[in-house]
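User: Can you fold this complex?
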Amino acid sequence: MNLRDSEVIAGLLLEGGFGVTEEEEKADAVLFVTCSVRQHAEDKVWSEIGRFSKMVPKPVIGLVGCMAENYKDKAFKRMQGIDVVVGTNNIGEIPYLLKEVFAHQLISSLAHQPFLAVSKKERDEVVYESMFRQEKDSSFVVISEGCDNFCSYCVVPYVRGRLRHRNYKNIIAEIEQNIKQGIERVTLLGQNVNAYQFKSVSQYQEIRILPPPLPSPHQGRAYRSRSIVNFMQLLKLVNDIDGLREFSFVTSHPKDASVELFEAMAKLDKLKKYLHLPFQSGSNRILELMKRGYTRERYLQLAGEYRKIVPQGELTTDIIVGFPSETEEDFKETLELVQKVRFNGAYIFKYSPRPHAKAGELPDDVPKIEKERRHRILLETQKKISKELKAKQ
Ligand code: SF4
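Assistant: Here's the predicted assembly.
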């Protein structure tokens, strides 16, 4: 999502009359498009901002994205070199804000004026209209933003906002635009793509009838049209686009995954047979604390159905070790699930408390050394399985 955001920002800047360079010594402004999912990612950003702040002359420094939402105006106090802080849904304002910063510097070379744009509820659709694409043959297309799941360890709903779905017509138009530019492979993006559902119910006609009022539940309103497109229907629409060679999607949530999804995956010829389905923990007690909304048994059932319906399909996952109160028994259940499902790949993370997230209220009581041990065991197990599965292909 951040890669796509960076591309969108580059496109907006180019359209706003700026140039984009990857050579840091040439840059008049440096923007950090940031992630708050783990403490480690944030620490790296603070350290890079510190490095750029010491440069002479110092470039304009912008903190953009999740950390901007997380810290808001406190970011200016935390790191004095920051000139502009822009939240995840405010990125459309970046060209204007940068012009303001440069104009301010021209008229007043001494006083530091911080610029803040955060907390916007939704992105304007126009941010996706830029034709700038980083890659020549593949691209990301956002289908939904934000998340309503509020998993107890996760900061995403607080920094990216509540779940919103883009209009499927705009999604299709963006893919067609990519194809015109020679890009024939796309990845549909969202924090929880399976929950995609676009409703157009606002087309109603106001009928004014003065007394007596209609005793109907829709008093005086006749609906003209009502259409709902869910994720499986969206996949079909994308599959039907002329000129598209291949597409895939990330990320799925087990509570919204279904046999219908796997059947669509098996059927649609352009859809890559690849599913990323994070399970996070193999212990029902920990899953409950994580507020994930499914059990170990349900996950195993889904994984089995996927393997049966999409036999050539790849399956990858995310796992967190060292969640508060995770015992050796809980960890063994996670390890056992990895051995049972035999994923093609897994992203394994050590738990770190995040601001806003509910799990932050629980004591982070698994010692660092123990988190590292569990991480290492899972990593080694998964590496072996990945190698064996690859050898069979
Ligand atoms: S599903 Fe859970 S982990 Fe994923 S973005 Fe939403 S809140 Fe975070």
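The chain has a mean pLDDT of 92. The domain at 2-117 is CATH 3.40.50.12160 (Rossmann fold).
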